[in-house]
Amino acid sequence: MPSSVEVGVAVVQRKSNVGSVTKEFHPCHYQVMLVETMVTSHANFGKPVCSLPKFPLQHNIVPQEVILDYLYLMTRDKSGGIKGERAIRVHLSSDASGYRDSFSSMGLYCVPLNHKYNVNLEKSSTAHVAFVSLDDALSGNSKFTCTQTTLTLLLMLKIWLAEKHRQDGSIQCIFRIRAEYRISICINNPVFIPRSKEQTSIDGRNTANFDALTKMLAIEKCDTVVMNPLFGSDLLYNAKSNVVVSNIYWSRGIPDYPKIIAYHKAALESKRDMDPVWARNYPIHKCAFEGDVAGINARLSQFSHSMKDDKSAAPIHYAAWRGHTEAVVALLKAGCSPNITNKDLQTPLHIAAKQGHPQVVNVLLEDSDIDVNPQDKTKKTPYDLCYNETEPEFLKAANLLSAAMDRPSQKIEIHLMGGGKKTLNLTAGDNTTVSHFKEQMLRELDMPESYGNIFSIWICSQNLELQLKLNHKPVIQLHKWKPLVRMMTESDPELEKPILEWRRNAKVNLQEEKQLLMQVQHEVGIQLLFHEASHRYISGLYIFNDQSVFAIAAGLLYISCGYCSVAEARSHCSANLSKFVPTVKLHIRGTNWVKEIIAQYKLLLEERSLDMQTLKLQFIRKCQSLQVYGSAFFNGTLQLRPNQQTLCHIGVNGLGIHLINTTNKAVNQSHMYRDINWYHPTEDSNHRLEIRLKSSSQTTILLHTKVAGLIDHLMKKMSNWQDRNGMGHNE
């Protein structure tokens, strides 16, 4: 067995936030340090030959520090020395078994750098080193070439980094600053002060640690050591008592312990001193602590009802702790959530139950938004904190909580575009409104309030989709769905299964949406808008020409499979073509969709700075350029001639009305509100909507649909908004 083995060292640095923002791995996001070999140029290409640093490693030593010292010595003459965070052995996966067999005698270590080093080939005196993109090193570069061994090791490194990207938190751990650099204060035992820092006396003795060591050795021989500070001082000293406390229950027989505990608890609460600095900094908390309802109401104009103090507690926590029922009611009426938590994840219900305040528990349970079973940091519910107590007040609180938990759970599911769903509380039972659902959805999705107007609750089945108003009660609407389907469509109501969906608000102005996406790029909000737009695109309601479809499909392919080889992308595209190209387009003969999409995909690969969110935003903006974007769609028929009718989708948005042929998904007509007049005869049993062009009074467009009245109402509302704001939907 050889005494040493040759190892390669891959010194790697990354771009900012790589691995924390996205799990996708791209070689262009990493740079690796290469060393110019003694052969100054490649025989065939006339350019420098570079390789990874390599050196022999002894079998009987710990490799990590040896590798870091080697790296420091190799680079110290020009940049002060590169100090790596750690040296990690690159264990090859099964995907690289062929490379393992070929180079079994060579190991590979990765040295991640937390700081960027600008090292140039020209400035090194001991070794010509430089950082280059991992992608350039693997694919070839016009300025240098790599040895075959180095290319193999770099490919192994690429596979290893890709695996770490798929493991949550791995990349952040690999590039984290070394532990000793994260220490802000270090305190040494004087006995073990490093030699370079020892204090020495005139005669050369190490006084500081010598004296400390002498004392420690002496103390170690004793079972108990008591140091008398006056020993040897020759001062007169008489022991005096500062405080004498007498047991008030002495010689009175067996104490009544429950009364004693209650007495001391009451005394403690009544004598509790309030920190004057805290009271001055948090006046609304002080009022809640004291149960001062008038003071709370007076300060609500200056301070938030949910403001937290330096202990991460809101005013309602103090009111619940002290048992001030009226103060709790005042804060709930002001808008404070009954489920607000402190640093221990305790809600006011936790605190009221723990302190044995049944009146406060009852008030909190009556709130429509209350969560009866919240868990704190220790996974305990309010009921867990009081049910074992024997005092009457605690038992009352426990009984109230038990009764609330026994009530049947009322939940409802809200589906998301692109898959997934959220389960919400029916805070008011069947009378819970869309407004309540929107508040819960914003919390569940961690969306900012500014996104509240962009999305709304819809009730949808296979052939009917309706957006609900804020005061609508979705549960009641679900019960009424069959009559609505019968009244508004030609479909069989028994086959229509309604669900609630969280979708784009059809009544929102596009300018507002564009401005919001520029100011606040919320990942979940963008994801939902992307999924809804892509659904409209694939179903043929958002119509683009073939050249645009090629580019859009390439973007969707990149979002689906990420940065991969052209062969992998072609295979994925062929297997999932219906996810990238509108269904109606696939039936058109003479177009090689896969070939055209891959051509556009290659162009995307050249833009290495692209990320998934940028591509999704680009797709949304392309859809926003369409006149039909954001429409609410209905089914109907377009009467072209007295005896000729065509099935069509009727789209209504802030710009106008749009008619799309149901069969070939071609836009038959699109008319702006400013260019038309329309009329809906309410007494007409045929559900007719007449549209007349202002430019030609002789031209009448006749639509037949059971939802003609609804379309008429929506068009009036949208056109009135346009008139008030003096602009169209797409301006």
Notes on the protein architecture:
With 731 residues, the chain is α+β, with helices and mostly antiparallel strands. It has 5 domains: 4-181, Nucleoside Triphosphate Pyrophosphohydrolase; 272-406, Ankyrin repeat-containing domain (Serine Threonine Protein Phosphatase 5, Tetratricopeptide repeat, Alpha Horseshoe), CATH 1.25.40; 411-511, Phosphatidylinositol 3-kinase Catalytic Subunit, Chain A, domain 1 (Ubiquitin-like (UB roll)); 544-624; 632-725, PH-domain like (Roll). The chain is 38% helix and 16% strand. It is built from 26 helices and 20 strands. The strands form 3 sheets. Strands 1, 2, 3, 4, 5, 6, 7 and 8 form an 8-stranded mixed β-sheet that branches. Strands 17-16-15-14-20-19-18 form a 7-stranded antiparallel β-sheet, covered by helices on one side. Strand 15 and strand 16 (656-661) form a beta hairpin. The longest helix is centred in the N-terminal third of the chain and has 18 residues, at 148-165. Residues 120-126, 195-205, 263-272 and 727-731 have low confidence and may be disordered.
